[in-house]
Structures are given as structure tokens and as C-alpha cells.
Amino acid sequence: MLFKSRTRKSFWRRVADFFWPRTGIVRSSKYIWHRVARLPGTPHSIAAGFASGAAVSFTPFLGFHFLLAFGLAWATRGNLLAAAIGTAVGNPWTFPIFFAMTAKIGTSILGGNPNLIPMPSWSWGAFLDAPLDYAAALFSLLFPMIIGGLPMAIIAWIIFYAVIKTFLVKYRSRRALRLKARSERLAAAVASMERQSEILAKATYDETNS
């Protein structure tokens, strides 16, 4: 696998890296971009795949984002691996923002009165005594989040698709030019060595027959 670490991480190390990457958020973002850039496939398939993964991150269906991303990527002829990478847009740092936005938008779309059940005051004792009260409160918020998440997912898909496709086209164009220049330099070096070999061989022949 591209850029895969040779050292196997422990379970707790992976959990810690999920919440706070050891390499830092900026380097982790660059790592993701490099992985996307080196994926095989057309710019459309990779961009559509990544956009699909990013789009489903705005839905409240935690635990099903990979399946949703694969389904959306398949429908848009996107790259499945790019879709899996795209789900990294949804993470512990962005989910609170995404879900707050989708809940607010969904509540507005539903007329500002979606019949939300107030969340009981939190305590372990209260939760153990009446877990269904918390479940009911969360479930009442789920529908507004779904309604609000749909337009957010569509907007996110369009934005990420445009950005990733533009990035890939430019990246591959620059890379092709670099490879062409390197190939030309190599060809010139080989031709120069061949000419020098011919000159040396001719000089040796002339010296032998003189």
C-alpha cells in the first residue's frame, strides 16, 4: 500500500492517532493529498470517489459512512479507494461542526419546530436508570439532521469534486512534464556516452592500425 508504515501500530496508538494524529493535522492532510494524487484512475473517478466520501460525512449515519461512500462512488463511477480516503473529511474534529450545521439547517427546513425531545441532564446514574430517554432525544434529532445533511452533502460533493479534479489535472500535467524532461535528459546523456564511446573506439582503432 502507498506510504504504508513498516511498523505496526497498537490499537490504542491508532485510537490516539484518530483523535490527534501524531504527525500533526497539517502533515496528515498532506499525506492524504499525496495518497489521492497517486491513486490509479482518471481524474473524474478519483475526484468523484473522494467527493462521495466527503459528502457522506455530513450525514448522521456513523458506522455506515464507508458503505454509503462506496454506494455513492459506484453511482457516480468514482474510485472506491478514493471514496474510503474521502471519509477522512469526517473526523472527531469536524463531526461536531457538521452535525450542528445539519441539525440547524434541518430544523429550519422543517419549519423550526421538529418536535425535538429535550435531552435529559447527563449523569451516569440517570443514563443507566432511563437509557431510552436519551435514545428518544437523540432519535428525535436524527430526522432534522438527515434533512439538513442532504443539501450539505450535495454542496460538499460538488465542491470537493471540482477541487480534487482540478488539482489532479494540474498535478498530472506537471508530473508528465517533469517525466518528459527527465527522459530527455537521460536520452541526451546516453547519446553523449555513445558518441564518446564511438570516438574512443575510433581513436583506439586508428592507434592500433597506425
From TrEMBL:
Keywords: Membrane, Transmembrane, Transmembrane helix
Any Pfam family the entry gives: DUF2062
Transmembrane segments: 46-74, 80-101, 149-168
Residue ranges annotated for the DUF2062 domain, each copy included: 27-175
The protein's name in its UniProt record: DUF2062 domain-containing protein
Species classification: Bacteria, Pseudomonadati, Pseudomonadota, Alphaproteobacteria, Kordiimonadales
